[in-house]
Specification:
This protein has 12 helices and 8 strands. The chain is α/β, with parallel strands linked by helices. The protein has a single domain, classed as TIM Barrel, CATH 3.20.20.
Length: 306
Amino acid sequence: MERVSVYEVGPRDGLQNEATTLSTETKLSFIERLVDAGVRDIEVSSFVRPRWIPQLADADHVVAGLPAYEGVTYWGLVPNKRGLDRAVSVEMEAIATFMSTSETHNLKNVNRSTRESLLGLREVIADALEQGMRVRSYLSTVFGCPYEGKVDPRRTVDLAGELLAAGAERISLGDTTGMGNPRQVQTILRMLQDDGISLDKITLHMHDTRGTALANILAGLEAGVRQFDTSVAGLGGCPYAPGASGNAASEDLIYMLHEMGYETGIDLDRLADVGLFVEDALGRELPGRYHLAHRAQCSAAKVLEA
């Protein structure tokens, strides 16, 4: 069976925009449950200024409490050199950098032009590699910007090439507000390949804002992409992009992959229970389709047992 890698962003991208702040202990339980379900790449927090994203202000404490598991990689998002220094101080082994393809979104997100961000990230990536860290890099608004609309795909190709040349091992292409469509996904992937960028260096990070996340992922899968970013139960969104609700749900993707004959190494039933755990912790319903079906089945089973 061919393997597809699922990179879980729930503890970071999923929680960052939530109004209910979870305790460090709850976050650690969330992460441990993901590991128990078979998830092997987990983005656990972000080393941004606490006032930017209060939900993730305890990043240092979360990382300090992470149990070591063979084969599991914990990733932390860093915005700049200061964030990297914090990640180094708590002995993170892997980091993710981020910038936008859209000038306006990048200015609103990090108060820098894309060129300024790229220059800064080159330094961050070089320093991280010197520390023996693994590095992946996000490109946001690849498939459309909430402020500028369409984004020239050439910008994505050029920035991806620059970040790979700087030392990033993968580029995660973000559909930040769910504006993408399958044909657009295939076009951008083809342009990357035409520029000499192999799809084993590419991850897709799709949002389901307009109900197209799985369709866009399938387009990427058929083109040759074999890693996807998802969030359990569809948790999350971008705080700097109006209307960016809903990451692609991990359970929805894994169900589709397993039914298509791909291997992920993840136990879908256990992962679905993680979605219920997070939903209870947040005190609100989460939108993942498989999650909703699983919750209904669990509720029906409890009624029968009673």
